[in-house]
Amino acid sequence: AQKVTQAQTEISVVEKEDVTLDCVYETRDTTYYLFWYKQPPSGELVFLIRRNSFDEQNEISGRYSWNFQKSTSSFNFTITASQVVDSAVYFCALSESSAGSARQLTFGSGTQLTVLP
Amino acid sequence: NAGVTQTPKFQVLKTGQSMTLQCAQDMNHEYMSWYRQDPGMGLRLIHYSVGAGITDQGEVPNGYNVSRSTTEDFPLRLLSAAPSQTSVYFCASSYDVASLSYEQYFGPGTRLTVT
């Protein structure tokens, strides 16, 4: 069964600090997909990134970067020079792709990030 | 495109009442799903559908029914509301049915309170 763990329930940083959100996953599949979503205070869910299990290249998008390490089953998310607008709940999620696997996305419990001015 | 729409945005029910949460998408996505979000528990899958006429249970299906008569619509029915069903409900759709390799598009959510 697939599982996603986000051990950091809440993180608070001061603006311009860097912050890393941790995500550890469990799966028996060799083919799977990892996602990060952002949920700002307004409540909607915003897709940030998708990564497949065969692509371990790190990705950078502006102030956001993602570190995918299969050896440790982790897919961590770093925000550089954080801003108040980054305050949100961030979810890591996993879907498996093998034949017979459930067609479902499993979410972690989320990390509440608060960026203080 | 409107994307994924949900109605109502807010709802208060009394224990034992039934109701239907509506979800529609205009992206011609085959995959649709319903999640509930509770504090500290992330989003948990209730039911999902891989196409018209095909539905399946997710992690927390008890107390909920779904049907998929068209590609566009995927309503969620609460049969007899209980306080434990107080939650925020999200509907989502996705392009890829086979592997869920593409992101899911989420509706704005319905905040349900059962008293």
- How many beta strands in the DSSP annotation of chain A? 12
What share of the residues of chain A lie within helices? Answer: under 10%
Query: SSE order of chain B in H/E notation?
Result: EEEEEEEEEEE
- How much is the radius of gyration of chain A in Å? 14 Å
Percent strand of chain A equals over 45%
Oligomeric state of shown chains: heterodimer
Q: Which class of secondary structure composition applies to the elements of chain B?
A: mainly beta
How many strand elements of chain B? 11
Instruction: Name the largest protein-protein interface in this structure.
Output: A-B, 24 and 29 residues
H/I helix tally of chain B: 0
How does the SSE layout of this entry go?
The complex is a heterodimer of chains A (about 120) and B (about 120).
Chain A: E1 3-5, E2 10-14, E3 19-21, E4 24-26, E5 32-39, E6 46-52, E7 59-61, E8 64-69, E9 74-79, E10 88-96, E11 105-107, E12 111-116
Parallel strand pairs in A: 2-12
Antiparallel strand pairs in A: 1-4, 3-9, 5-6, 5-10, 7-8, 8-9, 10-11, 10-12
Chain B: E1 4-7, E2 10-13, E3 19-25, E4 31-37, E5 43-51, E6 54-57, E7 64-66, E8 76-78, E9 87-94, E10 104-106, E11 110-114
Parallel strand pairs in B: 2-11
Antiparallel strand pairs in B: 1-3, 3-8, 4-5, 4-9, 5-6, 7-8, 9-10, 9-11
Q: Can you offer a commentary on this structure?
A:
The complex is a heterodimer of chains A (117) and B (115). Chain A has 117 residues and is mostly beta strands. Chain A contains no helices and twelve strands. Chain A has strands spanning 3-5, 10-14, 19-21, 24-26, 32-39, 46-52, 59-61, 64-69, 74-79, 88-96, 105-107, 111-116. In chain A, the strands form three sheets. In chain A, strands 2, 5, 6, 10, 11 and 12 form a six-stranded mixed beta sheet that branches. A four-stranded antiparallel beta sheet of chain A has the order 3-9-8-7, with no helix packed on it. The model of chain A has no long low-confidence stretch (mean pLDDT 92). Chain B is an all-beta fold and 115 residues long. In chain B, 0% of the residues lie in helices and 50% in strands. Chain B is built from no helices and eleven strands. Chain B has strands at residues 4-7, 10-13, 19-25, 31-37, 43-51, 54-57, 64-66, 76-78, 87-94, 104-106, 110-114. In chain B, the strands form two sheets. In chain B, strands 2, 4, 5, 6, 9, 10 and 11 form a seven-stranded mixed beta sheet that branches. A four-stranded antiparallel beta sheet of chain B has the order 1-3-8-7, with no helix packed on it. Chain B is globular. Classes of the chains: A mainly beta (117), B mainly beta (115). The A-B interface holds A 4, 6, 9, 31, 33, 35, 43-45, 47, 50, 52, 91, 95, 97, 102-110 and B 31, 33, 35, 40-45, 48, 50, 56, 58-59, 88, 90, 92, 97-106, 108-109.
